[in-house]
Design a protein that fits this description.
disordered N terminus, globular, alpha+beta, 3-stranded antiparallel beta sheet, about 140 residues, 3 strands
């Protein structure tokens, strides 16, 4: 039988596939720190993996508007990027194909990074301060 626990296929020193667990952990360290609940992180990671599977790219025209909105949000978090390809057709027209690309290296870096002990999440700290405190005149 096959050993499913075997080492992943490597290309150079790099493991090209992002696992669901790595994606969830990267989202915990980005979106989770901004207050996204664990249940939504898990759902979002599963949703994203449903598009990419074992690949790194998705053709943009496969997405619906609501999907694209989620992808833009994940791009802002540094988990996705875009690229485009131009193809010249016989009739002289230019065809552009837009792709969404998983930032595999960044996701793996986030997923496997150790949290610094005692590190302060400044964004979380400032977002927890009430509007009343911010509006005080000292």
């Amino acid at each position: 039988m096959f050993n499913l626990e075997a080492r992943p296929l490597l290309f150079g020193d790099r493991v090209p596939v992002v696992t669901l667990e790595e994606l969830k952990e990267a989202m915990r360290k980005t979106l989770g720190k901004k207050g996204l609940p664990e249940k939504e992180i898990v759902s979002l990671a599963e949703y994203l993996i449903s598009f990419f599977g074992f690949g790194e790219e998705v053709v943009d025209n496969r997405l619906e508007v609501k999907d694209r909105d989620v992808f833009y949000m994940l791009e802002e978090e540094g988990l996705l990027t875009t690229r485009q390809e131009e193809i010249h057709l016989k009739r002289g027209k230019l065809w552009r194909i837009h792709y969404w690309v998983l930032k595999t290296d960044r996701i793996k870096e986030l997923a496997h990074a150790e949290e610094e002990e005692g590190a302060i999440d400044h964004e979380l700290l400032y977002s927890s301060i009430s509007e009343e405190v911010w509006s005080r005149n000292l």
